[in-house]
Amino acid sequence: MRDIAKGRRLFFISALFMVLLNFPVLSIFNSGATVSGVPVLYLYLTVVWLVCIVAIAFFINRQDPRKQKK
Fold first, then answer.
1. Which domain does 39 fall in, by range?
2. What is the value of pTM for the model shown?
3. Of 16, 20, 67, 44, which is closest to residue 8 (Cα–Cα)?
4. Alpha helices, H only, the chain
5. Which residue ranges does UniProt annotate as crossing the membrane (predicted)?
6. Cβ(30)–Cβ(57) under 8 Å?
7. Over 60: is that where the pLDDT of 54 sits?
C-alpha cells in the first residue's frame, strides 16, 4: 500500500513540474529582464529544476512514521 501512495505522489510531482516547464508558463518568464545579470528565464529554469530534484528526493527518502523504531 505504501508503494502505491509513493507512486501517486511522484506522479503528481512529475505532472506539476511538466506543467511548470511547459511553453505557456515559460513564456511568462521569457523577457529581456535580468536578475543580477542572469536572464529571468534561465533563473526560472534552474530554480524549478532544483526544486523538482529536491521534492523527488524528499518523497523517495521520507520514512514511514509507523515503521520508525523507538
1. 2-62
2. 0.80
3. 16
4. 2-20, 23-29, 40-61
5. 10-29, 41-60
6. no
7. yes
Contact 55, 13 (CB under 8 A): yes
- Report how many domains make up the chain: 1
Bridge partners, residue 35, by sequence: 38
Whether residue 68 lies inside any domain: the answer is no
Q: Look at residues 26, 67, 23 and name the one whose alpha carbon lies nearest to residue 48.
A: 26
Task: Quote the cell numbers at residue 56.
Answer: 523527488
- Is the CB of residue 6 less than 8 Å from the CB of residue 64? no
Q: What CA–CA distances, in Å, run from 61 to 1, 19, 56, 65, 68?
A: 16, 24, 9, 12, 13
Computed on alpha carbons and rounded to an integer, the radius of gyration of the chain in Å comes to 17
Is residue 67 pLDDT above 80, yes or no? no
**Residue 67 located in a structural domain:** no
